[in-house]
Structure to design on (399 residues):
């Protein structure tokens, strides 16, 4: 078997499509364990999934077929990927807020494998701010969302909300399983967020970097088996699970943290946006308005990525970012050469769906072989595409 898939079916009319998904996953060589909520059994009988998966279906949290183990923990421990399809608004809300009151949600809390959620519901339910906020929470935690399609819905409406096609969900599962261990044994160093350069005890120079892209990369690398060190500037994000986080404030502090971790790193991904300049002199008291307009003299900060490029080992993979206005790809090509990098991720921060603070990004991957433009996608998906390319570059170096 190519992987152990836990398929959780919840109580929506789209549950009938889950039978097709179960069949498709088994045909592709995966071992499938089906969990169902009580409401899901009102739409499709457990016997259907048992016949398709060749495993008993688990519905009752208190049904313990093996006295030597706790069912939801044992299933969670075996899972290579945990798939919820369809995911109702109710279950999405429970997942977002850590509620565990049935077999599906209890197992979900115990799972450490990647989680794939395929929402399905009425168009207005999907658009409700509470549902959208819950989806945002799940996405931020690293849950992989398979967006619903548009078309006629069982409720009589036409619009967005129908469960994604089983083939599309199965393709996502396949991609997740293909990536699950490809960074095992790798030590990945990631920087994220802005840096802050103090003018006085109150004011500072910085930028609008949210750190979301770097955190997504760190989270994705850890999920793919890497040992990850994340050097983070000041951001308002929860640290990714399983990642060592080193918090810094200034560019100088970030440089020292990177220098400490770089020799052990197999891969360095510089996704931070450190300040390019700092005040030549930091005032030790607040400059008051009545003191007049201060003369602010600036000096350049250390170029962290260039410094690492100068001291890199031949087997290390170095990745930089070119967040620009105008022509980011041209800037990326120049940075690739000048800083001795293997890959530069170019993005126009003025483009729709990109820029600091956005949950999505539009990037072009630039390496010595050429350019790979990517469409607008969630930053977690961008992170995986970047890591796919990094894995390819690393295989080439080690071959």
């Amino acid at each position: 078997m190519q992987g152990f898939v836990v398929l959780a079916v919840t109580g929506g009319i789209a549950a009938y499509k889950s039978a097709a998904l179960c069949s498709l996953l088994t045909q592709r060589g995966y071992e499938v364990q089906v969990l169902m909520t009580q409401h899901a059994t009102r739409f499709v009988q457990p016997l259907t999934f048992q016949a398709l998966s060749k495993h008993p279906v688990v519905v009752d949290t208190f049904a313990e077929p093996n006295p030597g183990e706790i069912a939801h923990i044992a299933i969670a421990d075996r899972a290579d990927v945990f798939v919820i399809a369809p995911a109702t608004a109710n279950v999405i809300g429970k997942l977002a807020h850590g509620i565990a009151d049935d077999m599906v949600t209890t197992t979900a809390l115990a799972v450490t494998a990647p989680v794939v959620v395929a929402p399905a519901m009425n168009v207005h339910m999907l658009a409700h701010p509470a549902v959208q906020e819950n989806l945002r929470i799940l996405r931020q935690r690293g849950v992989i969302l398979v967006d619903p399609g548009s078309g006629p819905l069982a409720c009589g409406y036409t619009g967005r909300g129908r469960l994604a096609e089983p083939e599309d969900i199965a393709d996502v599962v396949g991609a997740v399983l293909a990536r699950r261990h490809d960074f095992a044994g790798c030590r990945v160093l990631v920087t994220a967020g802005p840096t802050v350069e103090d003018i006085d005890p109150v004011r500072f120079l910085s930028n609008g970097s949210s750190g979301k892209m770097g955190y997504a990369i760190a989270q994705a690398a850890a999920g793919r088996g890497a040992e990850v060190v994340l050097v983070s500037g000041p951001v308002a994000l929860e640290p990714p699970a399983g990642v060592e986080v080193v918090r810094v404030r200034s560019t100088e502090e970030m440089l020292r943290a990177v220098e400490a971790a770089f020799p052990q790193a197999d891969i360095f991904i510089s996704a931070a946006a450190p300040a390019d300049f700092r005040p030549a002199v930091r005032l030790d008291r607040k400059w008051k308005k009545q003191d007049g307009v201060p003369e602010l003299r600036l000096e350049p900060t250390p170029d962290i990525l260039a410094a690492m490029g100068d001291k890199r080992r031949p087997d290390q993979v170095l990745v930089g970012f070119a967040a620009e206005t105008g022509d980011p790809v041209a800037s990326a090509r120049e940075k690739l050469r000048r800083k001795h990098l293997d890959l530069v991720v170019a993005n126009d921060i003025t483009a729709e769906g990109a820029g600091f603070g956005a949950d999505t990004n539009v990037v072009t991957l630039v390496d010595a072989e050429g350019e790979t433009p990517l469409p607008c996608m969630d930053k977690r998906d961008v992170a995986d595409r970047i890591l796919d390319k990094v894995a390819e570059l690393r295989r080439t170096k080690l071959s």
